[in-house]
Amino acid sequence: MRIIGLMSGTSLDGVDAALIEIDGTADATEWRLEAFVSVAYTDEQRAAIQHAIEDGGAAAICRLNSELGEWFAGAALSACAAAAIAPEHVALIGSHGQTLWHDPPAPGGRGSTLQVGCAATIAERTGIPVVSDFRSRDVAAGGEGAPLVPWVDQRLFTQPDRARVLQNIGGMANLTWLPPAGATQPLLAFDTGPGNALIDAAVEAATDGRFCYDRDGEWALSSGPEPALLETLMSHPYLQRSPPKSTGRELFGRPFVHRLVEERAPGTREEWASLIATLTAFTAASIADAIERWVVPLGADEVVVTGGGARNPALMGMLRQRLTIPVLDGDVLGIEPEAKEAVAFAVLAWAHVCGLPANAPSATGADDVRVLGSFTPGDAARALPFADARRGRSG
Amino acid sequence: MRIIGLMSGTSLDGVDAALIEIDGTADATEWRLEAFVSVAYTDEQRAAIQHAIEDGGAAAICRLNSELGEWFAGAALSACAAAAIAPEHVALIGSHGQTLWHDPPAPGGRGSTLQVGCAATIAERTGIPVVSDFRSRDVAAGGEGAPLVPWVDQRLFTQPDRARVLQNIGGMANLTWLPPAGATQPLLAFDTGPGNALIDAAVEAATDGRFCYDRDGEWALSSGPEPALLETLMSHPYLQRSPPKSTGRELFGRPFVHRLVEERAPGTREEWASLIATLTAFTAASIADAIERWVVPLGADEVVVTGGGARNPALMGMLRQRLTIPVLDGDVLGIEPEAKEAVAFAVLAWAHVCGLPANAPSATGADDVRVLGSFTPGDAARALPFADARRGRSG
Predict the structure, then answer these.
(1) What value of ipTM does the predicted structure carry?
(2) pTM for the full model?
(3) Which of A326, A342, B88, B257 could form a disulfide linkage to A18, CB 3.0–4.6 angstroms apart?
(4) Do the Cβ atoms of A371 and B377 come within 8 Å?
(5) Min distance B132 CA to chain A CA atoms (Å)
């Protein structure tokens, strides 16, 4: 079965599309990546998303939902083109959507999460059935709705002989600790805190919006972190909370950086570089601290880093400096580090159509396992086989 | 198959839930209403929805989506209780959701529509699979995404010997013209313009929010419409556009009434009554005008009125005065007039699981017919049968 996974992360870089071939049973999964494309958002597209998140109302969100559906469909068709596979030979799309808001559950209350990117539009433009809205079922079942990748990590990347930490650094940073195959312990997974979001926002502010990320870690490497500020940042309450926990740009996003910039009013290039170096060190330290505190006690033989952050040598250097266990590049997983999240949503779509529950309650805090996502039919010819089975059911 | 239809309309009155039993094939549909409940929104609930529509941002909409899911689930369980049927004996829920925004397609562009009310939450609380988000596929296929009830109207209410107009008066007013059974003409359906929304907003303004609709048409019957204002209102460009067309509170909602109130500054009870009578006359005249202009030329033997507006004797009286063909009460359809829309979404959910396309392109303007909606699994035991069929497919 060929499946496309679509991911548009909190970084707002663009849409990632991974086309995989998967052949799975309840116990084993064979898969391979056939194509991976990353379609960058234009400035206008990024501004439209930012507007909807920060101050757009119902009208803006309604329009963005449709537009994202068009952009996601375009990315899916690009992945087909890159793999030289016609869309009619793709069985399914798994679309994460763009998170506009995410409220983890408060004590005594429930959480809520909102991903947009019209599934019907993706299905209409590609003709391919779509599974979408993966997080909301876990949230409805008392969970954080995140992280969802751990179940996929366990299926695809568990090692027979060692415990692995898979550290993903996107807009936010999240990890999955996988016990060796056959171990009885449940996996552990949580958001460690900020990923690239703070660094990106600071570079954007430093360059008046001309650059949106610290390419090759140049800004951070040209200066050093300020120890006092780093210490203050490391006292953030999120870092003290024990997992499972999840976070987002509400906590570690532009407003966080804008407050810092207001307080410190960096003027010279050197002052900006120092701020960016400190935010890079904060990101590395919050990751390393989480690993040392919550994961090393369970036994951990290696850390494998994926996501855009793996391309930032300053961040990777600081991470290696702070950790005693080996820190490996994501390519040991056999896929480009950037492709991992998109692959995960292809596998989650596969789980949906197989009726396999795919949340890990030890990671999300949900009451129990659940089948995640909603299914939107593709073109008419594809809709019918499903229908026969459904019609046969009675209440 | 027992199915619950859930409707929360533009009136923001509350959630309607209809539990039906349906036994259908591609050619014939037998069905009966087992229970209908209408759960009124509290003032707080209505205010939360209004806030999300008028000035809420991503955070407010995210939370409302979850909350509506909880309220919708509550209404579905109330319908089960009213019918004395356990939720595990209900096969499916069709949930319209709450429309937060609806932009019809602009020339050269596409429309967009946003219904919220977390399907995963409904499925989680009830254990029943949910079909939701019916409008967006029609919009993606070039349609207005509305009206969707006509396909259901045709299936359930076509007469062998006469052409029928089904006129629904909710927040907005919409009609379906059904040719006699076996006729080759396609049905015609469109939003005629305002339903109760303008009258409700004016009563609310007249009573400082103590009343939210004109009970028994008392306000309107205590005065008479102002001919000059009525004539101005009737020149509204929406009424001149030829069908298919759809509208919403963006055009005929509170801001419309607030502008009128600002211009005319009614002070006395009599001045308010005259304004309400004029808005009632505008609603009746816009409906009658649409019927005379677009429907009577096709042949029309009777008008059947459903929706909350059917309970307003002032509105019904004005409608009867303006039309030469018989105007019948909705109970000739064999169900309470208020239940019709909720029943329709139960039938649309049934169409989804049967793989039946359920948009009428002659009504929505879509390029072609489409299977509408997205499917969210119920509890684990129910998710599996579908999965077997899906797993069997290959791309």
Answers:
(1) 0.83
(2) 0.84
(3) A342
(4) yes
(5) 9
